[in-house]
Amino acid sequence: MVRAGRLVTAAVAAAAALLPLGVLAAPAHADDEACVEYLAGQGQDDDAIQEACEAGAAGNGPECLSTLVAQGIAPSRAAQACALAGRPSDDAAPRSLDRLQG
Q: Which residues form the domain of 85?
């Protein structure tokens, strides 16, 4: 159990290094929906994903990241989802989502 906790901590720390600094500051009208859509169909707890994406949109990138990784999402994918959540809605256009998912 301790080993699993350390592994999650290491994964979160590694992914946090990938997060742009802009995710840590709450922009006006951040886009938690882009985060949720990016992770759609992953098979994880939808409520936990929604809460994580809302945290990212509120400017709490580390909480977003750690919650998503705890749900079994790869750290790099979680970092991208949290980055999407932290962007202003205008920057997270569906066109951008299609490019990221495809």
A: 2-101
